[in-house]
Design brief:
Elements lengths: L11 H4 L12 H9 L4 H5 L5 E4 L14 E15 L5 E8 L4 E7 L3 H5 L5 E11 L2 E12 L12 E4 L8 H14 L9 H6 L5 H9 L4 H33 L10 H9 L6 H14 L6 E6 L5 H14 L3 E5 L3 H15 L5 E2 L29 E5 L5 H13 L4 E4 L13 E7 L6 H8 L6 E6 L5 H5 L6 E5 L9 E6 L2 H16 L3 E5 L8 H18 L5 E4 L5 H12 L5 E4 L12 E6 L7 H8 L9 E6 L7 H12 L3 H12 L24 H17 L7 H10 L4 H4 L3
Parallel strand pairs: 8-14, 8-15, 9-12, 9-13, 10-11, 11-12, 13-14, 16-21, 17-19, 17-20, 18-19, 20-21
Antiparallel strand pairs: 1-7, 2-3, 2-5, 3-4, 5-6
Length: 732
């Protein structure tokens, strides 16, 4: 038997064991394949235990204490089977170990009477308790010892608890793993022997045995350390492999950073760039001037000024004779980028590709998505917005301009990667909030050009370990300074009705001072239907019962784009005092006059999302306030820890580290949906040193063997682990 053998070959009887009433369920091996994705022996052995129960200490029966979890080894002294008053079968097995007697009780398990016979020796683990004056073990795990058998599987040891599913028990999985380890002749080490020696790693085969059936806690820690290194190394190897291929497979565009467009942009800015913005622009200039394709991650906190840095890069591409594209995940964010860039481009002669005279009479005028000012007469950079809301003649004209090269800069949503969108000469692709796109969408935008430079932006700060792993193929530039005049947002938690009323009073004071407020409603179901209903109901309640004299409006993601656009424009221009919204405002909304945000059911949000929402206020020079309504029940410590962190700091990078610690990497940035391998044992919040070591070794190996031709076993392992993102891995 090998690691590639099907699970059904481990043990025919075990693999075909059926769970469920009267054993009518599917065979165990079919359940494993269908529900857990486990088809082979190798996949089964990488299905690591989620926790362990220490049953290694055997106690005499006379020493058992009520309520204590214990393991005993004793002989069967008697078996009694009878019917209860409720016509249930009750089997009582009495044990004796020389120090005392103990009962095991089995309800509706008549097979126990024939399985356990007088004289049999059993190992039993469970909780000691009294039943009608007799000592017994409850919730017991029982193992029948046969002859000289000493290798216990379920009791008398540190027992693994594997994740199970409906139709198969953790006991069956444990037995299958144990039998597989017995039958495997050898388990080859996937890592090169020189790497194992250099890192002083323990045996891979030994680690696989010990992670499932450790003899001690020390042995378990050692096995986990080895296997953590392995999975981090394979992840980093894939990252290094891809990075090398992208940088060397094709020649990129050598841009000219110094030029008239960049000079005019900087000369006409209505503000002084921060030191962080200046440094970021210089780093992008250097990267874009190289002959190889740029793959760079620009991260900065909410409101740190990444848009200017991205626009600077776009102008470098345009003044070098090429085109640039910026793709955002939502129409709101795309519109905000378009508007912000229009404000910066207009003063030096750039013009929207669609003249206002070409906008239909019934189309929105002066909206969030189209600047209301007349375009300047001086010719310059041409730019356009392309989203699903742009239709008809306008869409056709923009597509024609992009294809001919008449449009220098296009801002849009996933509409940019649809069929029919072609660029004349795309040399810079900017992807904002990339974790909201799938791997294939990101690759599709890049594929619109020959070998364009790629700039990925995020206002969701990425923890260092995540940047070294799942984003490890990218060079990282950080904008870590806020523009002058920004006021830190004061955050409070409201858990009582009195505190809620204080929050409403705060809203009224701010509105009376000429400012505006957001109220955010949380999602309750996956389809967000309840979220929409909650927002609409909350808007009606606030408008009727709390703020009858104020203008209250609602915004949610199920609105038609034009309707959404009109609501946002009305709020931005001060028509409405309160905007009751779903999380559609999480990114891309810039209303400097908004100074208050109330977040309903804040305990339902993750830290990153709360921080993004809070970033919608505090964008002007006025003091701003965020109130988090906490409806969590007592004992929900994780939710309370998240909200306390929001009060403690406004630093997005600190909050990102805290979010990683609280929730793990699997829930951050949709890592599981990115197509990259999951981590089964390693925890990025805890294993920074292992990440650094594995990354260093992986990049060094790719440096000497870029195509892994000298390491075919590693290349095969890469193909297996990166199966869901094989195109990403081998992208050129």
């Amino acid at each position: 038997m090998t690691l590639d053998s099907p699970v059904s070959e481990i043990d025919r009887q075990l693999a075909n064991r059926r769970a469920g009433f009267r054993s009518k369920g599917d065979p165990a091996h079919e359940v494993l394949a269908a529900s857990l994705g486990i088809d082979t022996v190798g996949q089964l052995l990488h299905h690591y235990p989620r926790r362990y129960i220490d049953r290694s200490q055997v106690s005499p029966i006379r020493d058992l204490k009520i309520g204590q979890y214990a393991t005993v080894i004793a002989k069967v002294k008697g078996v009694n089977k009878r019917q209860t008053r409720h016509r249930q079968t009750m089997v009582t097995v009495t044990l004796y170990d020389g120090s005392g007697y103990l009962d095991l009780t089995f309800f509706n398990q008549p097979w126990a009477a024939s399985l356990y016979k007088e004289g049999h020796e059993l190992a039993v683990s469970g909780v000691a308790q009294l039943y009608r004056g007799r000592l017994q073990l409850g919730n017991q795990e029982v193992e029948l010892l046969r002859g000289d058998e000493q290798d216990l599987v379920h009791t008398g040891r540190i027992t693994p608890i594997h994740r199970a599913t409906e139709g198969i028990t953790t006991r069956t999985i444990r037995e299958l793993v144990h039998r597989a380890l017995e039958k495997l002749s050898a388990i080859a080490d996937p890592l090169p022997p020189e790497l194992v020696a250099a890192e002083r790693l323990s045996s891979f085969a030994g680690a696989i045995h010990q992670i499932h059936f450790p003899a001690s806690q020390e042995e378990l820690r050692g096995a986990a350390e080895r296997l953590k290194f392995d999975e981090l190394f394979i992840l980093e190897l894939g990252v290094a492999f891809r990075k090398h291929r992208v940088e060397t497979a094709e020649k990129g565009v050598r841009h000219e950073p110094a030029g008239p467009l960049v000079e005019r942009l900087l000369a006409t800015l209505p503000f002084e760039p921060t030191g962080a913005q200046v440094r970021a622009m210089a780093e992008l200039d250097a990267a874009m001037a190289r002959p190889r394709p740029m793959n760079l991650l620009l991260q900065g906190d909410v409101g740190s000024g990444k848009t200017l840095v991205a626009l600077h890069a776009a102008l470098v591409a345009i003044q070098s004779g090429h085109q640039a594209a910026i793709m955002a995940p939502t129409e709101v964010l795309a519109g905000q980028h378009f508007r912000s860039m229009a404000a910066l481009l207009g003063p030096f002669g750039a013009i929207p590709y669609l003249e206002l005279s070409d906008v239909p009479e019934d189309g929105p005028q002066g909206s969030l998505f189209e600047p209301s000012a007349e375009p300047p007469p001086e010719a310059g950079v041409t730019y356009a917005l392309l989203t699903a809301a742009v239709t008809g003649k306008d869409r056709a004209r923009i597509l024609e301009g992009v294809a001919s090269g008449d449009v220098d800069l296009v801002v849009g949503t996933h509409a940019l990667v649809q069929e029919g969108v072609g660029f004349a000469d795309l040399s810079l692709a900017v992807i904002d909030e990339q974790h909201r796109f799938g791997v294939h969408q990101r690759m599709a935008l890049k594929g619109k050009g020959g070998s364009p430079d790629v700039l990925i932006m995020t206002a969701t700060p990425i923890p260092r370990t995540l940047a070294l792993t799942y984003y490890g193929d990218l060079d990282v530039v950080v904008v870590d300074e806020m523009p002058k005049g920004r006021q830190p947002v004061e955050t409070r938690i409201a858990r009582s009705e009195a505190e809620r009323q204080k929050a409403y009073a705060l809203v009224r004071r701010e509105v009376e001072a000429g400012h505006q407020a957001f109220v955010v409603c949380a999602a309750i179901d996956e389809a967000n239907k309840t979220e929409v209903r909650a927002a609409e109901a909350e808007a009606k309640r606030l408008a009727t019962d709390v703020f009858p004299d104020l203008s209250v409006h609602v915004l949610h993601g199920r609105m038609r784009p034009v309707e959404k656009e009109r609501v946002m424009e009305a709020f931005r221009t001060g028509v409405h005092h309160l905007l009751i919204s779903t999380t559609v405002i999480e990114v891309g909304v810039d209303v400097p006059n908004a100074t208050v945000m109330l977040v309903e059911n804040a305990e339902r949000f993750g830290l990153a999302q709360l921080h993004q929402l809070r970033g919608r206020i505090g964008r002007g020079t006025h003091a701003s306030f965020c109130v988090l309504f906490d409806e969590s029940k007592e004992g929900n410590e994780e939710a309370r820890a998240r909200l306390d962190a929001m009060v403690r700091t406004t630093d997005g990078f600190e909050l990102a580290d805290e979010d990683l610690r609280l929730r793990g990497e699997g829930t951050l940035f949709d890592v599981r949906q990115s197509g990259l391998p999951d981590l089964k044992l390693a925890r990025l919040a805890e294993d920074l040193e292992l990440v650094k070591r594995s990354r260093s070794r992986a990049f060094a190996l790719v440096e000497t063997d870029p195509e892994l031709g000298d390491h075919p076993t590693l290349l095969a392992e890469l193909r297996t682990r990166f199966e869901r993102s094989i195109d990403w891995l081998f992208e050129t």
